[in-house]
Design brief:
Blueprint lengths: L2 H23 L4 H15 L8 H23 L14 E2 L3 E2 H21 L6
Antiparallel strand pairs: 1-2
Helix pairs in contact: 1-2, 2-3, 2-4, 3-4
């Protein structure tokens, strides 16, 4: 895959993540563009893996949760971007189980979108 296509997919993922936050919370942050682009590109790597659907969903949720944790530890030290300290089963106020579970079905949609935009090469 060429650099231009990778950049376009990253940009699409970043814009979608920011858009999702704007719809869900009414605000976002520039770091979420970076997180979203990273998530989309990483989720795209799952598109060709022969995994059962539930495993694929959990793997996708794990990827997004991991990126959110890293993004939070870098950009959200003072909880200016988001604050999950009052959420159940949270870790350091950066990630929490309810949102991790929400990422599972959303990641499946993102993986399928990636597959449509960048189909696997024919063998």
């Amino acid at each position: 895959m060429g650099a231009l296509k990778k950049t376009a997919l990253f940009t699409l993922g970043g814009a979608a993540y920011v858009g999702l936050e704007l719809v869900w919370r009414g605000r976002s942050h520039g770091s979420m563009f970076l997180a979203g682009g990273s998530c989309f590109v990483l989720l795209g790597r799952l598109r060709n893996r022969p995994l059962p659907l539930p495993v694929r969903a959990l793997a996708g949720a794990g990827i997004i949760t991991g990126v959110e944790l890293m993004t939070g530890l870098i950009f959200n030290r003072h909880y200016n971007v988001w604050d999950y300290r009052d959420m159940p089963m949270q870790f350091m106020g950066q990630i929490c189980l309810p949102y991790s579970l929400l990422w599972a079905p959303l990641s499946l949609g993102a993986i399928e979108l990636y597959r449509l935009l960048d189909p696997p090469p024919k063998k």
